[in-house]
Amino acid sequence: MKLLKDILYGVSLSAVSGDTNVMINNVHFDSRQVEMDDVFVAVRGTLTDGHKYIQKAVELGAKAVVCEELPDILVNGVTYLKVVDSNSALAVLASNFYDNPSKNLKLVGITGTNGKTTVSTLLYNLFKKAGYKVGLISTIKIMVDKKEYKTNHTTPDVLTINQRLSQMNEDGVEFCFMEVSSHGIHQKRSEGLHFAGAIFTNLSHDHLDYHKNFAEYRDIKKKLFDALPKSAFALTNLDDKNGKVMLQNTKARKQSYALKTYADYRAQILEKQFNGQLLKIDDNELWSKLIGDFNAYNLLAIYATADLLGLEKMETLKLISELENVDGRFQYFISKEKITAIVDYAHTPDALKNVLVTINALRTGNENVITVVGCGGDRDKSKRPVMGHIASEMSNQAIFTSDNPRTESPTTIIEEMEAGVEPQNTRKVLSIENRKQAIKTACKLALANDIILVAGKGHETYQETDGVRVDFDDFKEVKAALAELDK
Ligand SMILES: CC(=O)N[C@H]1[C@@H](OP(=O)(O)OP(=O)(O)OC[C@H]2O[C@@H](n3ccc(=O)[nH]c3=O)[C@H](O)[C@@H]2O)O[C@H](CO)[C@@H](O)[C@@H]1O[C@H](C)C(=O)N[C@@H](C)C(=O)N[C@H](CCC(=O)O)C(=O)O
Ligand SMILES: Nc1ncnc2c1ncn2[C@@H]1O[C@H](COP(=O)(O)OP(=O)(O)OP(=O)(O)O)[C@@H](O)[C@H]1O
Ligand SMILES: N[C@H](CCC[C@H](N)C(=O)O)C(=O)O
Ligand SMILES: [Mg+2]
């Protein structure tokens, strides 16, 4: 139980009706979860408006209601608090309710279109190897030191974040690495958190269905940096044309990394092979199993972060060289027939291009590249023709298929991908709606030394159609299909 007055500390209230000297049990933004003596925060969403459920929440026992508009009928014994922005108020309430757990550890936020999961997971693994208790909040999972929790979002809601951070406090976690998505920043899921640092990876085409345009998408990412305290570091990628923008208005210590331009942390790629690459960082050589120029950026970002958080440089380099690929990110195996199958979470045009550039650069002869790819439903439609174009242009054979169609027609999504294929590439494209069949077909078409890329779903273990998730795992599917052919 907490005193309402205490958890309201820092919330700017425009009107109060009722007593704030009352004990409350919990905080919720979903009326369906409200129980006796809870606080209900009414948030305006994209599908509905939490204000519609205030009465329902009170019926279920809410002792206090936080809202942007007071309801017509105020119930006796319930405290009503009017605020300008419910999401911001929720963020402050959540931090206060859990005793501001982000202040008791070093929380680092990672933002950017691609690379957030890779960088945050590598940092988690690196700091664990260095002997620390570490936390991770990522697309794949949440880790409270060694305890694993499932997640549905890249950046969870602000109550879940604070709840997990508070658990981290209890377990003595010293560092937490957290992905901060643009949706998360926009919906203020990361507000009120005390960051020790923030990292910007890159910015390219994604989520232009949700954000009005690219400039708005960029400015939302920048808000993470704008809100950093003076004590934090703000680490940006200067090779990305939006890298500098992130640092424009931050109070934090400005730090940068780059491969092509002058920066505080610099690296050079000395050698590229299929099973790894050799980098030069700070006059020291680093061998990593993670390949691709994009991973050179990821590795440099984690090296810089480790330094900024006080790890010893040589020790960091040694530990980085032991890091494995993150699940579903360039995860590969070679079949008995010498066919290489790669599963990668590339679900944006830039990621798909990067992965195909990496694969094509590693070809030694006339082996074929066969790409199986789809685009998610209920997500940015403008990505579809661009990804269709890239897959058909940069592969010898492209097979368009379903990703997570969600509520959309898989046929329509594939047609939108096909619209991006240049006439000279149409002969290279097959469209097979069923993802299992598409993967099987790729395996049947592959000859010895060929490379199959299955892109878009990476670590995901489901496929979502019409709100129903069925088990589906790209890595298992491609492995089974190739094993079948090996018999
Ligand atoms: C577009 C989007 O981000 N939507 C998120 C948003 O939902 P919403 O705004 O549509 O909520 P809503 O359904 O309209 O409801 C409004 C309010 O009424 C409340 N309500 C609703 C019904 C009821 O009976 N009672 C009640 O109180 C809801 O709890 C909510 O507070 O707030 C919900 C609660 O936090 C989220 O679950 C939901 O995520 C949806 C499921 C989603 O798919 N989000 C994706 C796009 C997302 O956030 N992705 C990013 C990654 C993107 C990246 O790759 O960078 C992520 O961080 O995961
Ligand atoms: N630094 C990078 N620059 C460009 N592409 C990258 C980078 N790192 C990874 N990728 C590509 O993007 C894909 C997704 O990577 P990752 O999961 O790390 O990104 P993310 O930012 O977490 O994505 P999401 O927004 O879905 O959470 C990878 O599978 C790889 O193809
Ligand atoms: N975080 C991304 C993941 C996309 C993954 C892709 N497989 C899809 O389902 O579209 C999003 O929610 O847009
Ligand atoms: Mg991610």
TrEMBL record:
Gene Ontology terms for molecular function: UDP-N-acetylmuramoylalanyl-D-glutamate-2,6-diaminopimelate ligase activity
Post-translational modification: Carboxylation is probably crucial for Mg(2+) binding and, consequently, for the gamma-phosphate positioning of ATP.
Domain (Mur ligase C-terminal) ranges: 328-458
Highest taxon listed in the record's lineage: Bacteria
Binding residues for UDP-N-acetyl-alpha-D-muramoyl-L-alanyl-D-glutamate: S31, T154, T155, S181, Q187, R189
EC main group: ligase
Compartmental location: Cytoplasm
Binding site for meso-2,6-diaminopimelate: R379, D403, N404, P405, R406, G456, E460
Residues engaged in binding ATP: G112, T113, N114, G115, K116, T117, T118
Enzyme Commission (EC) number: 6.3.2.13
Cofactors (names): Mg(2+)
Family annotation (Gene3D superfamilies): Mur ligase, C-terminal domain, Mur-like, catalytic domain, MurE/MurF, N-terminal domain
Catalysed conversion reaction: UDP-N-acetyl-alpha-D-muramoyl-L-alanyl-D-glutamate + meso-2,6-diaminopimelate + ATP = UDP-N-acetyl-alpha-D-muramoyl-L-alanyl-gamma-D-glutamyl-meso-2,6-diaminopimelate + ADP + phosphate + H(+)
Family recorded in the similarity comment: Belongs to the MurCDEF family. MurE subfamily.
UniProt name for this protein: UDP-N-acetylmuramoyl-L-alanyl-D-glutamate--2,6-diaminopimelate ligase
Species whose genome carries this gene: Flagellimonas algicola
Taxonomy of the source species: Bacteria, Pseudomonadati, Bacteroidota, Flavobacteriia, Flavobacteriales
